[in-house]
Write a structure and sequence with these properties.
By secondary structure, the protein is of the alpha/beta class. Helices cover about 35% and strands about 15% of the residues.
Amino acid sequence: MTEKIIVPKEFENYLRPSLEEKGFEVISLISENEKAILEHKDASGIVVNTSPLSKTILDQMPNLKVISRFGVGYNNVDLDYTNKRGIYVTNTPAGNEISVAENAVTDMLLISKDLYNVSQHMRNGDDAYAFDNPSRDLKGKTVGIIGYGNIGQYVAKLLSSFGVNILIWNRTKKESSYGKFVEWDELLKQSDFVTLHIPAVKGTIGSINKDSFKMMKNSAYIINFARGAVINQSDLVSALKNGEIAGAGLDVYEKEPLPMNSELRKLDNVFLTPHSASNSIESFTKIANMDVSEINKVLNGEKPNHCVNGLE
């Protein structure tokens, strides 16, 4: 019997050709909710984006052998439970590093040059805004990179050409020719920009909070292209309103999509994007190829290259 693979509708065009070429039946779902998934409870594999895969769903999928994440973060999957069930959970490290890193640096430039506001005012006929509100150069500023995996490293590489001072904090020490490893407090206190590239795991969830914002310069900005959960969003809103920090560039949030009544939508000192940093054709193609490879390996009795839930 042909094994079924569930994929998100938005990535179907990237996944379907290669999966069908390998002999799998592809089930494309517009919604990744419980009802939609369990209409195909006999599936052997599933490609998941950011929607949660609960124990309730997994309990009703007896044939499931592999969950492949379309991206890097995997906090939407219960790793302990999948481990007990013997279900491989894989991700695609380095699949989106270029796109996310480029977006993080783009936010720094947009903020430094105040380009969003300049453009909006010009559209409304106010050419004087740009002259009355001069921008700042990135050169000479200090950028703190929290998390030095593939994305953080590429951010540092890109920034190296801008003449900035780069400080780095990582859970484990690594070598870097682009910046200096420092302690957490030092990075927060010295940085003009703090850019986050850490996973949402025990020890990092809520690690950027009111204490962090009190340590940061009033003129500093925080950039988050990691996961919304690493920042205490209520503390962030307070810091932005009270001037404890100058502003933020955000692509991820505690709740996604960001609710229309969120305070973040009302603040002028926040540049918002809808968790779209990895949305490039090149990134999607690379990620899809990695997902297909991992699924094919598992369903052919081989070990995947990027298992994240500890299965041997």
